[in-house]
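quick one, 144 residues, struct below
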Amino acid sequence: MFTTDRTRLRRYFREAWRRHCAGEPLEPLQRQIAGVVARHPEYHRWLEDEEALARDFHAELGEANPFLHLSLHLALEEQLATDRPRGIVALYRRLLARSPDAHAAEHRMMECLARTVWEAQQAGREPDEADYLACLRGLLDEGG
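---
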């Protein structure tokens, strides 16, 4: 799955979902992908549509990119599993203590992650973990 080839990455997501729906055995990463996809029925049609593999999604036109969204979920799950950046698990738990909807909390955290990655790409540098954690702490200041 680890590739910069957008089509190959999308095919991997698609295959994981297809195998899940068919009741076929899944590799651990495919199982993780299927779990994230299962929580997003609004994206199922994109994973079942061959043409979506080459489709551009335009945020400026209000189009959500399902593959980006699912990838952000996976990245956040990895961060929470490893507590990297250090302290993210504690911040997540504090968010959950205020509002126990884990999926909604993840979406709020993913906004910070997406912003951090976008800013790093624009500046041509690595993502700034301190800024990312500050954004996450700001979610607590907003009331959870």
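DSSP finds seven helices and no strands in the chain.
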